[in-house]
Amino acid sequence: MTRVLISDKMDPRAAEVFRERGVEVDQITGLSPEELKKIINDYDGLAIRSATKVTKDIIAEAKNLKVIGRAGIGVDNIDIPAASSAGIVVMNTPFGNSITTAEQAIALMFALARQIPEANASTQASKWEKNRFMGVEVSGKTLGLIGAGNIGSIVADRAVGLKMKVIAYDPFLTPERALELGIEKADLETLLHKADFITLHVPLTDQTRNILSRENLAKTKKGVRIINCARGGLIDEEALKDALESGHVAGAALDVFLKEPAKENPLFGVPNFIATPHLGASTTEAQVNVAIQVAEQMADYLLTGGVSNALNMPSLSAEEAPRVRPYMALSEQLGRLLGQLEGDKIKSVSIEVEGAAAHLDQKPITSAVLSGLMGVYSQSVNMVNAPFLARERGLDVREIRHDREGAYHTLIRVTSRDDKGQEKSVAGTLFGSEGTRLVEIFGIKIEANLSGDMLYIVNDDAPGFIGRLGTLLGKAGVNIGTFHLGRRNTGGEAVLLLSVDSPVTAGKMAKVAELSGVREVKSLHFL
Ligand SMILES: NC(=O)C1=CN([C@@H]2O[C@H](COP(=O)(O)OP(=O)(O)OC[C@H]3O[C@@H](n4cnc5c(N)ncnc54)[C@H](O)[C@@H]3O)[C@@H](O)[C@H]2O)C=CC1
Ligand SMILES: O=C(O)C(=O)COP(=O)(O)O
């Protein structure tokens, strides 16, 4: 039975969805890394929010884990390279909590502008300090967005509605999109100089870490107010403390901290500072959205192979999966065939799709070819980690799509190139419900099913050979299942692909190799 662990607080609808889909689910929150390590091996899926840290060490113990689902956006608590090399799909829910988080940023902007938390505390302490809490209007002010992706764009939309002027620093924001949002694209320097409010909506990466450094904070306009609902680590907390204390920064509201849970922080107790405990995504609506979505996505993957919102694998919808799966099987076989015949001589590979295959997303096909090719060397290779391992090995991979239809209604051709530039190519098609078929090997037309144990023999195309081979294999007790023959038009060379009932031992292979007329022999295995 497929089993999933939910290791963070999550709306109960996640567990309901898993159960409705026939997936067994345990929800155990607050586990220490050691406790999680001990039990993770029992699960096929792990559903988390931001509290669980899925480190390399945890992944090393997760021998059965196939998918990690993040009910939310940020995946900086997951070691994605480690998951990828272990063949584990990592998926998130990129839109389910965006509105909620954007609303939190706007709420914090108002809280800063009108000092609402302090005014609340003072009033309830019976002080009635009407003169102390003089605020500022946001209307007409400049809001500087650092990051204008999903959340940043929603913040921009709300801020434009509040009659603010919005400028955005985001190298990936196109001028057309900026125009559509009614905002202005700016470089970081300009934004720092002009903004009355700055709000951060970028992921935490090596490029964004400390983006509001001490140096950059010093470049901001005096009296600026800063909001961070994205990730701790984007702002130098010590420098922000100093800037608040000196009055250069008039206020700061942080939902996220360098170290979470933030039980202690240099900013705590500093004037004009507002803190919330990573509540950006915490509304009923957002939590229901992300819980249902993550459970659906994970169940789809575990039960049907459908992939959505994966960060380390191409998407494949549950509806698309049955249509693409036969192509993936064919691609895997072609990759495996080439991998077994050409081995580590392969320096580059090109994957061509033609006919019906050209209308499909090519990414799953490429992943499947690479998974077959690299799977020859390691049993832990799969669709997720194959492209990653190929890159690591320096394998050059090209994808080519032909709209033309040739002799077959659909065709996949895989060509390898060795370091001397020599090309070897295999091609296959799908035959309706009958499944996959190899149709060409190294320039020779053939028709063969690639499955189980097989023998690949290149021999002189001369009378009597097949009889001699049959006799030898018969005497050796090797039962032939299927027999496929192809010949080159020139050069008197033929190719034989035989399926055999059990692997042929090295001793018997040597006897075949000695048979007169044999130029090459190899035993092959397919899944
Ligand atoms: N506080 C909370 O509870 C929540 C926090 N978040 C966080 O909000 C952040 C933004 O989320 P989304 O808008 O959904 O992400 P997104 O991926 O849609 O947008 C991020 C934007 O940042 C831009 N960007 C990337 N690198 C950049 C750089 N070096 N300089 C400037 N811009 C850069 C990208 O081009 C992109 O447009 C993430 O860090 C996410 O983890 C998300 C949900 C809830
Ligand atoms: O979705 C995100 O990136 C968040 O930061 C939300 O975190 P949470 O699920 O509330 O722990």
UniProtKB/TrEMBL annotation:
Record EC number: 1.1.1.95
Gene3D superfamilies referenced in this protein's UniProt entry, alphabetically: 3.30.70.260, D-3-phosphoglycerate dehydrogenase, domain 3 (3.30.1330.90), NAD(P)-binding Rossmann-like Domain (3.40.50.720)
UniProt xrefs under InterPro entries: ACT-like_dom_sf (IPR045865), ASB_dom_sf (IPR029009), D-isomer_2_OHA_DH_cat_dom (IPR006139), D-isomer_DH_CS (IPR029753), D-isomer_DH_NAD-bd (IPR006140), NAD(P)-bd_dom_sf (IPR036291), PGDH (IPR006236), PGDH_ASB_dom (IPR045626)
One GO-annotated biological process of the protein: L-serine biosynthetic process
Enzyme type, top EC level: oxidoreductase
Boundaries of every D-isomer specific 2-hydroxyacid dehydrogenase catalytic domain copy: 4-312
GO MF terms held by the record: NAD binding; phosphoglycerate dehydrogenase activity
Pathway info: Amino-acid biosynthesis; L-serine biosynthesis; L-serine from 3-phospho-D-glycerate: step 1/3
Keywords, comma-separated and alphabetical: Amino-acid biosynthesis, NAD, Oxidoreductase, Serine biosynthesis
Domain D-3-phosphoglycerate dehydrogenase ASB residues, every copy: 324-441
Reaction catalysed by this enzyme: (2R)-3-phosphoglycerate + NAD(+) = 3-phosphooxypyruvate + NADH + H(+)
Record bears the keyword Oxidoreductase: yes
Family: Belongs to the D-isomer specific 2-hydroxyacid dehydrogenase family.
PANTHER family per record: FORMATE DEHYDROGENASE 1, HYDROXYPYRUVATE REDUCTASE
Protein name, entry field: D-3-phosphoglycerate dehydrogenase
Organism this protein belongs to: Zymomonas mobilis subsp. mobilis (strain ATCC 31821 / ZM4 / CP4)
